[in-house]
Structure formats: structure tokens, C-alpha cells
Amino acid sequence: MPFSGRLGGWLMQRRIALATESIRLAVAAAFLLAAGFAAADVPVPEAVYQPEKSNEAKEEHRLRDPWSPEDAKADPSPDLPDKDSTSAVDPTRHVEQGAAQAGDLTADGRIRAGQIIEEVRYQRCQYVKGYSLVLAETGGCEVQEFYWNCETVKELWWVRTPKLLMSISTRRGREGYRRILICPNGFWRPLPGIRESGKPDSKYDQEPPVSTPGLPPIWLPPMQEPATAPVNESAGSVIGPDPDTVDTTKFYWRTVLPVKINGCSATYNQKLYKRVTRLNTKTGEERVISDAPAAPPAERAEVRSVPGCG
């Protein structure tokens, strides 16, 4: 298959993967809207979704033996561990297209020893369309949360004039949620902190973004705060449905978004929730049995000062 076809197939796989992720996130966003969270009023600039490259590194390898990118054993450099996808081109296609000469290849279509292969590695990160949650409103701008992911990319180039791309390999990297300050005039700035997928102990919520000179005041309260049990309810641990399980009940205040920031004051509401977890004392496995608003419903209004404001 021509390289254009292989690369096109690789790009199509990437588009399908991103589209699938966007659909999943759109469903999540719809669920959040149904739960009462606010939709974004400030439009998101398209520039937010453009991939960013970083940590680029290049290294050249002079081939000791004939090589083809489809021959994994002859790769001139260690491959990406647990790579997710690879697209390679048959070197003979470059000869057919006039970009290389037949004498550059062996009889079996490999690049001859002595040729130079350049390895380029970099990290590519981007925000994915389909999920956007408004966390705070401040000074006419919004703090929005987006799904974000990265991948490590390795490209192998045949060093000629011009250089010829021989293969692309990718490995999935960090992913999670990040916050961005977005203003109606098109200004946007990523805020510190990443809530990585699969890491519930992340400090993302415990270390909210703080204000920056020259920008609208920013602050987010904890998304959850401990609460005492209401009347006729009790918190604590009891033996579960069998002797090897322990059920623990806790109450907490869940912050209702978005937070309204006016000047140096942040105003928001919190609803009382009840969470029950079950611990299997034999296996150590713990899971959430229920997590829902307390009955009867309880809500409180909070006003906090924005740190570093004023």
C-alpha cells in the first residue's frame, strides 16, 4: 500500500479514536447538564483544540545493516514500549515515486547499510472537543474544565533531500482534566493543575487555581467538604450484609457549580450528600454502594474571600 494510503489509514484511526472520545465526553457533559451544572456561555476559541508539541528530541543513526521500517528487528533505535499504533512505508514506494533511487535499496527492498535514519521524538497534547464544564464565572470570563490527553510520538526519517518520512509510532501518555480561563474577547490561558484519569488521590481539587495579576480573580472551593450527619441519621461503620464486610456511611457537602466571583468574593451553594461504601475485610476491596443527596434535602450558601485578591 502506498505511504499516503498507510498514513491516511493511520490518520483515520486517530480521527475515529478522537471522535469516539468526543462522543463519550459529550454524553458525560449531557449528564452533568441534566444534573444541574451550567453550560458554557463564553465561546471556546478553536485555538484551544490545536495540538501542541513539546520536548522534541532528534537523533541520527547510520545503518549498519539493510533496514526497512516494517522490519521491527532491524529498527535502528529502541521502539516505544507498549506502542498503540504504527504506520510504516515500504521504501520501494519512494523509488516508484521518484524520491529515491533504486540503487539505494537492496534486492529485497531494504534501505542499504550506510544510509542515515533520523529519529524524532516528541510529546503531542491537546484538549478534546465534547466536554466542557463551567467551574466559575469571573469578570465576564469563565473558568472551564476540558478533557486533555497526550501521546508520545516517534517518527523515523530517511535523511535525503528532502527527508522522507518512513514510519510514525505513538504511545498514549498522560490524560485527564484541565482548567482554562476563557474570556469573550478570545483570550484564554490554561490554569495550573491536572486531574489525571485513574488517580482519585489527585491534588487537583485540593489545590485550586489562584488569581494572577492582570487577570480576573480566580478561586475554586473544594468540590467536597466533610459534613455532620443530619437529625435522625448516623455516620460511621457497621457490619455489612455478611460478616466479612463493613459498611461505612459519611456525609459531605458537594459544591454546586458554577462559582460566582464578584470582586474579591466567591459565592456558591453546597448540597448535602450521603455516601455509603462497603469494605471486604478479606480482600481489602472497597466500593461505593450509594452516593446521593441526603434525605430530606439540605443546602447551604457560602461566601468566601478570593485568596490574593485586593
List the helices and strands and how they pair.
Blueprint: H1 3-34, E1 52-62, E2 85-88, H2 91-96, E3 116-138, E4 141-158, E5 164-182, E6 188-190, E7 195-196, E8 224-227, E9 236-239, E10 245-262, E11 265-280, E12 286-293, E13 299-305
Parallel strand pairs: 3-10
Antiparallel strand pairs: 1-3, 2-5, 3-4, 4-5, 5-6, 5-7, 8-10, 9-10, 10-11, 11-12, 11-13
How would you describe the overall organization of this protein?
With 310 residues, the protein is mostly beta strands. It folds into 2 domains: 3-196, no CATH class; 224-305, no CATH class. Helices cover 12% and strands 44% of the residues. The protein is built from 2 helices and 13 strands, in the order H-E-E-H-E-E-E-E-E-E-E-E-E-E-E. Strands 1, 2, 3, 4, 5, 6, 7, 8, 9, 10, 11, 12 and 13 form a 13-stranded mixed beta sheet that branches. A hairpin with a 5-residue loop joins strand 11 (265-280) and strand 12 (286-293). The chain starts with a helix and ends in a 5-residue tail after the last strand.
Summarize the entry for a quick read.
By secondary structure, this protein is mostly beta strands. It contains two helices and 13 strands, in the order αββαβββββββββββ.
Distance between the termini: 64 Å
| Secondary-structure element series | HEEHEEEEEEEEEEE
**Helix fraction by DSSP (H/I, runs of at least 4):** 10-25%
Number of domains: 2
Indicate the proportion of strand residues.
35-45%
Structural class comes to: mainly beta
> Which parts are unreliable, with pLDDT below 50 for 5 consecutive residues or more?
1-8, 23-37
Question: Which value, in Å, is the CA radius of gyration?
Answer: 27 Å
* Largest β-sheet summary: 13 strands, mixed
Mean pLDDT: 83
Instruction: Enumerate how many helices there are, as a single number.
Output: 2
Q: How many strands in all?
A: 13
Tell the overall outline: elongated
The quaternary structure here is single chain
